[in-house]
Specification:
By secondary structure, this protein is of the alpha+beta class. The chain has two domains: about 160 residues, Roll (Pnp Oxidase, Chain A), CATH 2.30.110; about 80 residues, Split barrel-like. It is built from seven helices and twelve strands. A hairpin with a 2-residue loop joins strand 8 and strand 9. The chain is elongated, with a radius of gyration of 23 Å. The protein starts with a helix and ends in a 7-residue tail after the last helix.
Length: about 280
C-alpha cells in the first residue's frame, strides 16, 4: 500500500473522534439549497444521528428529498493552512424518524449522556425527532492535492473531482520522483506519481513554485504558492496574494506523459529567464 494512502487511512480512522456537530447541506423539493448544522453522534458503522426540530430547514428538506450532505471540517484555529483545512464529507441517505420509532429512546439516551441536561430538555420537546444519516459515499481531504474517496467507510483509492482541488491525489508526504531512475519502462504520470511530484515540489522546492506563479502565471505580489494539480498538459497553482487566493493554470510548452518528463519540465520552467 502506498505510504500516502496508508497515512490517509490512519488519519481517517480517528478524524471524527473530536467532532460533536456536523454541517448539513440539503435541498428542498424545488432544488433550493440550504445549509445548517446540528450536534451529532456517529455510530461505529458510520451512521450519523442528530436530534432535529420540525421547524428547521434541514428537517423539512430531508422530509422532502431523503438526501443530505454531511461535512466535518477542521477548526480554523487548528488548520495549518486556511486554504487546505482537513475535511470529511458524505453524500447520505437521510430520514427524519418519528418519536415512536424504536431508535428514538436509544438516541435520546445517548444524546443525554454525551451533551447533558440540554439534550434531555430537547429530547423531551415533542417537536424534536431523530435524524438518521447513512453515508453512501464520501471524500476525505487532508491537504492540497490530497483527496481520497470513501466507500462503505473505507478509503479505497485516490479519487478525482476533489473539493476545490481539481483532480485529487495522494498526500503531501509522498516521496519525490527518483532522480535518474533506470531499468524497465518509465513510470507513467499516474495519480500516485502526480501525488509524489506535488508533495516534493511543495515541500522541497517552494521557491520554484513561487517562480511558476509569478513568472509563468503572471501573478503579482504573490505571498506564497502551492502546486495543487498537474497533468500532461499543464499545472495548477494556488497563490496567496493581497487580493486573496488565486488559482491559475499554467500550460506546458508541450505535452508530457511520464513522471520523468514531468520532472524535466518542472526543472526547465523553474530556471530564470536568463538561463532559458
Amino acid at each position: 500500500m502506498p505510504d500516502a494512502l496508508q497515512k490517509a487511512r490512519e488519519a481517517y480512522a480517528t478524524f471524527l473522534d473530536d467532532f460533536r456537530s456536523v454541517v448539513l447541506a440539503t435541498v428542498d423539493a424545488d432544488g433550493k439549497p440550504g445549509s445548517s448544522y446540528a450536534p451529532c453522534l456517529v455510530d461505529d458503522d458510520g451512521t450519523i444521528w442528530c436530534l432535529v426540530s420540525g421547524l428547521s430547514i434541514h428537517t423539512r428538506n430531508v422530509e422532502a428529498t431523503g438526501r443530505a450532505s454531511a461535512l466535518f471540517i477542521e477548526d480554523e484555529s487548528r488548520a495549518q493552512q486556511i486554504f487546505a483545512r482537513r475535511r470529511l464529507s458524505f453524500d447520505c441517505d437521510a430520514a427524519v424518524l418519528s418519536r415512536e420509532h424504536e431508535a428514538f429512546a436509544d438516541v435520546a439516551a445517548r444524546f443525554a449522556e454525551a451533551f447533558g441536561s440540554i439534550a434531555e430538555q430537547i429530547a423531551s420537546m415533542p417537536d424534536f425527532r431523530p435524524l438518521r444519516l447513512q453515508p453512501v459515499s464520501g471524500q476525505f481531504v487532508i491537504g492540497f492535492g490530497a483527496a481520497y474517496h470513501v466507500e462503505r467507510g473505507q478509503l479505497s483509492h485516490v479519487t478525482g473531482g476533489g473539493q476545490g482541488h481539481g483532480r485529487a491525489h495522494g498526500g503531501a508526504g509522498a516521496r519525490p520522483p527518483a532522480h535518474g531512475a533506470g531499468g524497465g519502462a518509465e513510470q507513467a504520470l499516474t495519480p500516485e506519481a502526480v501525488a509524489a511530484i506535488l508533495g516534493h515540489m511543495n515541500d522541497d522546492h517552494a521557491s520554484a513554485v513561487l517562480h511558476y506563479a509569478t513568472v509563468h502565471a503572471g501573478l503579482h505580489e504573490v505571498q506564497s504558492a502551492q502546486l495543487v494539480d498537474l497533468d500532461g498538459e499543464g499545472m495548477e497553482i494556488l497563490a496567496s496574494t493581497p487580493a486573496g487566493a488565486i488559482r491559475a493554470r499554467v500550460p506546458f510548452p508541450h505535452t508530457i506523459a511520464t513522471r520523468g518528463a514531468a520532472r524535466e519540465m518542472l526543472m526547465a520552467m523553474a530556471r530564470p529567464a536568463t538561463e532559458e
